[in-house]
Amino acid sequence: MAENDGAGRRSVDDGYGQDLKRELRQAERQEKRRAIGLLLPALLLVAITFLAPIGLYLYRAIDNAIMPELMPQTTAALAAWDGAGLPPDAAYDALLADLAAGKETQALGRLARRLNYSRTGFRELVLGTGRNLAAVEARPAREALVEIDPRWGQNEWWATIKQESGAITPFYLLASLDLERAPTGEIERVAPEQALYVLLFIRTFWISACVTALCFLLGYPTAYALSLLPARITNLLMILVMIPFWTSILVRTMAWAIMLQESGPVNGALLWAGIIAEPLPLMFNRAGVLIAMTHVLLPFFILPLYSVMKAIPAAQTRAASSLGAHPLLVFCKVYFPQTVPGVAAGALLVFILALGYYITPAIVGGQDDQMVSYFIALFTNQTINWGQAAALGAWLLIATFVLFALYSRLVGLGKMRLA
Amino acid sequence: MSMSGAVLPSQRHFRRLLFLVLGLVLTFLILPLFIILPLSFTDSRILTFPPTGWSDQWYVTFFTDDAWLVPLKNSLIVGGFTTVIATVLGTLAALGLVRAEFRGKALIMALLISPMVVPIVITAVGLFFFYAWLGVVGTYFSLILGHTVLAMPFVVITVSAALQGFDRTLLRAGSSLGGRPFFVFFHVTLPLILPAVVAGAIFAFATSFDEVVVALFLATPEQRTLPRQIFAGIRENISPTIAAAATVLILVSIVMMGTMEYLRRRSERLRGVRPS
Amino acid sequence: MKFKLLLAATGIAAAAIAGEVLADRDLTFVAYGGATQAGMREAWLKPFTAATGENIAEDESPSLAKVRAMVETGNITWDVLDQESSEATTGCDEGLYEKLDYAKIGINKDDFFPGTMSDCGMGVYIAGNILAYDGDRFPEGPTSWADFWDVNKFPGKRGFWNTPKGTLESALMADGVAPADVYKVLRSDGGIDRAFAKLDELKPNLLFWDTGAEMINRLASGEYAMTFAWNGRIVVANEQDKRNFKIAYPAGFTYVIDQLVIVKGSPNVDKAYALMGSLASPEPNAEFMRHVPYSSTHEGAADLLTPERRAVLPLSPENVAYGVAIDDEFWAENYDSLTERLNAWAAK
């Protein structure tokens, strides 16, 4: 018994510490479980109605299932072909069968469109061949197809089909960087007159950078002045910053569309004041885009910066001044460095938001002021090139996430505040 | 080192310049919104400034024509459901975020906030294909879920900000006095964070009420919202009714902003913080 | 509690889906908005609703792409669309539009101008893509597309519709090609390059419009000194807004057949057929022309109009001599690649 008692006591002694730890761990685990339980509904919602749709959408940037689906026999027959010269007779037979099947199911239009992205001319080649399939009769497929269209006797058209045979393709991702695969598989630049997207990305970044710079130039003195004024006045003036912040982007853009017209109030005032003799073109150009986007994004810069400035004790600058330092020197050496985090936070936020702008440039911009988002919408709605739209979206999203990660490093998402 | 000639601006000049900039920037921010007001009372069919005569016909149109009443109703339905769902889920998530430290917390926060930063066109097109695949494009359901996911980050941010400055000993006190978790939540936590929850709800409603791009891709004429109708007005059928509609949107924004400001001051007063 | 809330939310959502999926959708009619759609509403849709009790929902900007998304996903929210004939043909080839059974529509094809009815599209009106300007701004207005290009003589911005169709033809006319020869030139080697080279000259002063309302509003606000326009909108703006817009028919113009199509898989095919059938007699077609002066495809319809109204139609005897029909075959083959080329050209 004694031994047992001893053993028991020892075990209790030892176990007491362990139990406590275990209990603590258990409590912690339970706490974590509860935390996750609380987070779960929101996470599920984001995962199902946000991440999944965007992931599926971005998959379209590489999705090429249409080729094996609509050309099952041709893609199979070309797998063995080395890509030199012309493919074997079996490939011609397969093509004929695929086109006949496509015609039957009214799918030739889709196939023609897809191939046309990779090589201009494919649309009429496929549809034209489809229209003339009746003329094939009992002749060998190769002879009949080349007679319908001599392009079936040229290597490049076959090489394109072979290259785009797979269920996934890098085609769109490359195309949205103005690159393409040569028949040999090397990656090269597209012809200069086709090149567009590198320019488009540069323009998107450039407009965002200009808007960010304008927000800094206008927003910094504004936030500074607001932080110097007595609270009563600041609170009143803050309303003038907050009203636009709360007003819909669409409404604000529309307001600028009215303001900047040739016969609009801005030109009217300038003409009246004698500053200009002819109305200035302010709309449908870069100036209009920069003015309207700066207006929309400026509160995002001013508000966080103001709260940083508010927290800087005035005594500090006063002390430096009282030691005889010139005000400008005090500002540069003492004050400004302390506001840098606020500037960086505001600037990054403005830049990230500007990258994705669509509505504002679409309404006040000209055709050479449109940003990446405009082309995503255009390819989705007008030209139906969904793969291209998704590829542009993928690159834009990558850029956004890199900057967003930087933002969360720099600012910390937990410290994000609204208004 | 002579300072003669006063090349550098004195502090007074510097301040004067500063307040001049302040005045100009504030004018720049507010003026375009004030331009819309007189335009909405124009008697002309074309939106040019200044108006040649006055009329309230565009407001009559706005409040009597189904082309505007139905979108207004749709905006309220979608905004209402969005607000409820986003506020409930966002508040729960914020409670979860501050409750414990665990690995991947930063990532979860980033995920929850990401709808705010993903370019809206990508979200809208992605949702369009997704809901089209499910066969629910052109239903309130898809539009509400689309807006909810955009609105929730605002609730998460607002509520978790309030919870961070929140004395957790109060919770323990509540629990140690034998309060069950739900009791503690409703009688201790909720009253304390309620202003933030309401603020988040207002943000959520504003997000939905102002949103146009997702509506552009997801709504059919039957679910067309107010901003979507204004957009159509700008593009397809320009009339001063859109100025009247815009004025209504601005007024709603001002009311929401006023409510927020009231809440902020009230919570500062309750916490004994002096108005800053 | 939170579970209850969740359950309630899910329940509401589920009920919303079920309710909406099961509910019958109104027949949805989609056209290019503005005055044209308003004219269709008065002349066609309202009488149809009055006669049958069927409500009609409306949408704007009928794009082939959106139809494609609807058909591929089986999520059809549009039923009857106004499409230009080349889009109707492309959509037909791609299986996006119903092949029409004209006997079922209940119209006699012989009552309509030949060539206006196709497999999937029932031609309803013919619109002129004309040169329009503000007569108050230029009393001695432009008389040719070459004048349209002359920004020294007529300073100001120029408008074109954001599509190559009609734009390239107009550019060639500005380059001295007779309207009847534009497609010969476009089909020849270097013809397309020639049109783009001509557009290059205008580029600094060119601004595309996307919708008819944008076109009219910019012409009215002075943003455009002159623009490529749909003739009907110009006349309506003069009538309703007391403008003094002028159309330079002698400059040459293209005209296009607009057809009604039914989206494949529409749950409202029967109603769509009934709506199309309601246009069998001359009267609704004439009524449409009274609202918007496009030329009806119905042979007897113009006879019901006043001589003044007939004179402003694009296919009036005076005007038709200056026009050339849009070549559907050319555009069915080249529309995609030229749209892409125009987009890239404009964006640089």
Describe this structure in words.
The complex is a heterotrimer of chains A (419), B (276) and C (348). By secondary structure, chain A is an all-alpha fold. Chain A folds into three domains: 1-59, no CATH class; 66-169, no CATH class; 197-415, MetI-like (MetI-like fold, Orthogonal Bundle). Chain A contains 19 helices and two strands. In chain A, strands 1-2 form a two-stranded antiparallel sheet. In chain A, helix 14 (286-310) crosses helix 16. Chain B has a single domain, classed as MetI-like fold. Chain B has helices spanning 11-39, 57-64, 66-99, 105-117, 120-134, 140-164, 168-176, 181-210, 213-218, 226-236, 241-271. The longest helix of chain B is centred in the first third of the chain and has 34 residues, at 66-99. The radius of gyration of chain B is 24 Å and the shape is globular. Mean pLDDT of chain B is 85; it is low at 1-8. Chain C folds into two domains: 22-126 and 257-317, 3-Layer(aba) Sandwich (D-Maltodextrin-Binding Protein, domain 2); 127-256 and 324-347, Periplasmic binding protein-like II (D-Maltodextrin-Binding Protein, domain 2), CATH 3.40.190.10. Chain C is 47% helix and 18% strand. Chain C is built from 16 helices and eleven strands. Chain C has helices at residues 2-22, 34-52, 64-73, 85-93, 102-105, 145-149, 167-174, 182-187, 191-202, 212-221, 231-241, 269-277, 282-291, 307-311, 317-320, 328-347; strands spanning 27-31, 56-60, 80-84, 122-134, 157-161, 206-209, 224-230, 245-247, 253-262, 295-296, 323-325. At the A-B interface, helix 1, helix 10, helix 11, helix 12 and helix 14 of A face helix 1, helix 3, helix 4, helix 5 and helix 6 of B.
